[in-house]
Amino acid sequence: MTTHTTDTYTPNPNTTDSRGTATRTAPRLAGSPPRSVQLAANWMGVQCCIGILALAFLLPMAGAYGPIPGAVLVWAGVTFAFYILIGVLAAKLSAGRRWVRRTALTVEILMLGSGALSLFTGPNIGTVVALAIATVITCYLSTRETAEYFAS
After folding, report:
1. β partners of residue 22
2. Domain containing 92 — which CATH number?
3. Radius of gyration of the chain (CA)
């Protein structure tokens, strides 16, 4: 008489919870960034593009009434450099360097502060959109899986 043994299926603990139900996070390749990092980088790219496009539209409007004052040009240059920094940080996020996450969080917190201040001084739809995007990015950069990815 032969004894048959049945193999029991053991779900992968990385992709299922204790009941065997699939979790929302898919397994990732070693070294690849988690979804929250990818989403933060994508949103930072969107933020960079929107900021530079807004600057490209606003600066010519300022020049339509005569020569642009030097202070406006300095403001435009600093704003342009700030959005370029956001774009560079977005491109570097997937590298997993701790300084990139810290710098990105600092920049986004500055964006949140600027947006909150703008809500009180002269709110408009651009301020609300910028504040929403900065909030989303800050939330993605503050998740546990993002912190673990940058800690290793």
Report:
1. 16
2. 1.20.120
3. 23
Cα separation, 83 vs 61, in Å, equals 20
Please check whether residue 48 lies inside any domain of the structure: yes
Give the 3-state DSSP-derived string for 31-53, with helices as H, strands as E and coil as C: CCCCHHHHHHHHHHHHHHHHHHH
pLDDT per residue rounded down to tens, the chain (152 residues)? 555 554 443 444 455 556 666 555 555 555 688 999 999 999 999 999 999 999 999 888 877 777 888 888 898 999 999 999 999 999 999 888 899 999 999 999 999 999 899 888 888 888 899 999 999 999 999 999 999 999 86
Q: Residues 6 or more apart from 66 whose CB is under 8 A from it?
A: none
- Tell me the C-alpha distance between 3 and 66, whole Å: 94
DSSP for 52-69 reads HHHHHHHHHHHHTTSSPP
100, 85 contact by CB (below 8 A): no
- The CA-CA-CA angle for residues 113, 114, 118, to 5°, reads 115
Residue-range definition of the domain harbouring residue 93: 35-151
Amino acid at residue number 147? A
Quote the CA–CA distance of 126 and 135 in Å, as a whole number: 14
Whether 17 is covered by a domain: the verdict is no
